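[Discussion] Sanity-checking designs against the backbone

I'm trying to build intuition for which residues belong where. Below is a structure token string of 264 positions. I'd appreciate it if someone posts a full sequence so I can compare it with mine line by line.
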């Protein structure tokens, strides 16, 4: 058996996280990559990048969809986007590129690749977010300690936290009084859908509370393609995306927000 066949056979049986090997056979473990965060969850990745990252920060983590699939979480202006990195059994695929070694993959990121999705928003990957960040080892002393409730058990201790579920991009919106269509920059964070005059505007034109929204659906009444609407008690908002895929993504995440809100 030749050296290439031996290496390929070895790669196909090992855990994908151990397979970022150079083509000359020198093993380099994925765990050694400083911005690989292992089984960090999607929620934790978004919270981390939104609170402490900046535009262009990114990290690599395991995907929960299947073995051999990873997620590249990337901080945009006001949201976090997630992209697949796939292990094929002999190489790793990201975007339009395929890499046979970890060295080639890292070199690609060292050159600050520019990526874009259906939103049309372009992001330069500039800042790998490290797995290990030093913090001062300081602890507070407990000076007051008492129970505020009585008679409760572990069944009453239910951990809860709001999901972040961020998204951003340009959409064309129909006006409320004057029925003209204008392109606005939209951001989705928790249960707030904001729209701005453009991406650089510091203050939103309006903030919509999605807890008041009763439905999100495709719309065919406006004689426009890729159109959908958000139904509120006081008004129905009509929005159009550039592509059907982008419209479907907005509808999917907005509906998920509505369903999730009804569970609590």
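Best answer:
Here's mine. Compare freely.
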């Amino acid at each position: 058996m030749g050296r290439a066949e031996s290496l390929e056979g070895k790669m196909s049986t090992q855990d994908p996280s151990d397979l970022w090997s150079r083509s000359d056979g020198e093993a380099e473990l994925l765990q050694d990559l400083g911005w690989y965060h292992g089984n960090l969850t999607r929620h934790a990745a978004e919270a981390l990048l939104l609170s402490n990252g900046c535009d262009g920060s990114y990290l690599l983590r395991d995907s929960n969809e299947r073995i051999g699939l990873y997620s590249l979480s990337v901080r945009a202006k006001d949201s976090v986007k997630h992209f697949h990195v796939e292990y094929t059994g002999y190489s790793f695929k990201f975007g339009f590129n395929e890499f046979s070694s970890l060295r080639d993959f890292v070199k690609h990121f060292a050159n600050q690749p520019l990526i874009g999705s259906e939103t049309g928003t372009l992001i330069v990957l500039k800042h790998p977010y490290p797995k290990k960040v030093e913090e001062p080892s300081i602890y507070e002393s407990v000076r007051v300690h008492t129970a505020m409730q009585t008679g409760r058990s572990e069944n009453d201790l239910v951990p809860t936290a709001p999901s972040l579920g961020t998204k951003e991009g340009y959409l064309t919106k129909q006006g409320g009084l004057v029925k003209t269509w204008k392109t606005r920059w939209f951001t989705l964070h928790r249960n707030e859908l904001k729209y701005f005059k453009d991406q650089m505007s510091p203050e939103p034109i309006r903030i919509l509370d999605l807890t008041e929204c009763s439905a999100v659906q495709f719309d065919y009444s406006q004689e426009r393609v890729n159109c959908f609407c958000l139904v509120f008690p006081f008004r129905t908002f009509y929005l159009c995306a550039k592509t059907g895929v982008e419209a479907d993504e907005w509808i999917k995440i907005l509906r998920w927000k509505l369903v999730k809100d009804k569970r609590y």
